[in-house]
Specification:
Largest sheet: none
Number of domains: 1
Distance between the termini: 29 Å
Number of strands: 0
Number of helices: 7
Strand content: under 5%
Order of helices and strands: HHHHHHH
Radius of gyration: 19 Å
Length: 209
Amino acid sequence: MATAVHPDTTFDTTDVPLIVRSSVKLGLMQAVTILAISMANRTLEGTADQGATALLLTVGLIATILLPGHWTRARTIEGIAGAAGIGLGAALAFLVLDVVALQPLGTWTNRWYEVGGHSNWWYHPVWWMVGSYLSWMGAFVMANQTAKNGAPSIPGAVVLIAALTAIVGAAAAALGFPGAAWSVPTFGVAVLPALAIAAFVSGMGRSRG
């Protein structure tokens, strides 16, 4: 007597159409966020500029870190890998939007050009890696939450990642880490190690069964 096996489709949704749609949506969100930051940098000064940049950057980072894992409903390596794929696909979608719209609009300042030796292309390879990493680690956090609690918590993930980012950024600035300061760029970069720590912390107490 044959037994029908019905796979659980509640989690780890990684079909190709979903990955492609999600990649395009996230890439569009990233492009809009970058354009908004550029406008803020051009029209505001001092504290207002720093505050607007920090807020917009935070929104963009949260979307990139947590939406892919939410869309794939990551619970195992399948959903986590799918989320990383969305992060990479979004970077490719952003490349197209950057070439078609952002660069012709003059989004990037001379300072941005100077970082890349007067080239507009240095940041795309960087973003392919960073975008994939952010979505990958974010999905790990959500998968760990699901394993422990039966469902992920985006607010819980945001609080954990934000707290660890603040700790890492403050430690780097206070200890005089090369290039670190009490600034938006420092805390933006601090998200990277903070995410790895968050993935470890969120997995503590997780059932391996």
